[in-house]
Amino acid sequence: MELITSKLLEVPHGFPTREGGVSTGVWASLNAGSAVGDAPEAVALNLGLLAAAAGVDGDRLFGVTQVHGEGVVEAPIGAQTEADAIWTGRAGDAVGVRTADCVPLLLVDPVGQRVAAVHAGWKGTLAQIAARTVEALARAGSRPADLRAAIGPSIGPCCYAVGEDLIARFAERFPSGICVRRPAGPFLDLPLAVQTTLMRAGVPAAQIDPLGLCTACDPRFFSHRRDRGLTGRHFSFVTCRF
Ligand SMILES: [Zn+2]
Fold this sequence. Notes:
Number of helices: 5
Shape: globular
Largest sheet: 6 strands, mixed
CATH class: Alpha Beta
Mean pLDDT: 97
Structural class: alpha+beta
Bound molecules: zinc ion
Helix content: 10-25%
Strand content: 15-25%
Number of domains: 1
């Protein structure tokens, strides 16, 4: 397994590449998506490998049913729970989100000892799911100024061609740098929008690590757009172990 990590997060965590799983074909090999056509047994085995990488038992690795919304839930919860961010302060639990171009965001509060995983596609980013998660952590006692954040591999402004209508919606809420104009048309910088959202929510810039990896450029990753919908899902995780 190849795990991309951030030096800012001093707990077990990782943004996996495709390597190290048991799935075959377009899902090769570390697919964690259970609704993308892959064999359920292979997905279950892959999740077991990811739990081991997170340093937890399989029943302590929590995800949610993602719906491109702004819901934030606290683990432990059932995997059928619909939300796009999940956090925990229970020592020995790990939380994660599934992505294949959307932005996976991991948050750590080393003072309050809480961790969170966030799935931010364009809908969730417009709905400021990252800020909703910071607020949920704050309600539990965390200070935004204490949070560390890592913005994982997602489709980047190099590849994320979008329509003018979407650019206009983002331009209402974000600085102009969100849009990159080229002869081919406008491109959206989704990770920069997430980073901006975090800073507005009170997370210091120096405590945000934008890893800058593009899932569509880099063949190490599943990419919904590059692979035309026939692909797997990464499961990025963070463990509450301080
Ligand atoms: Zn790219």
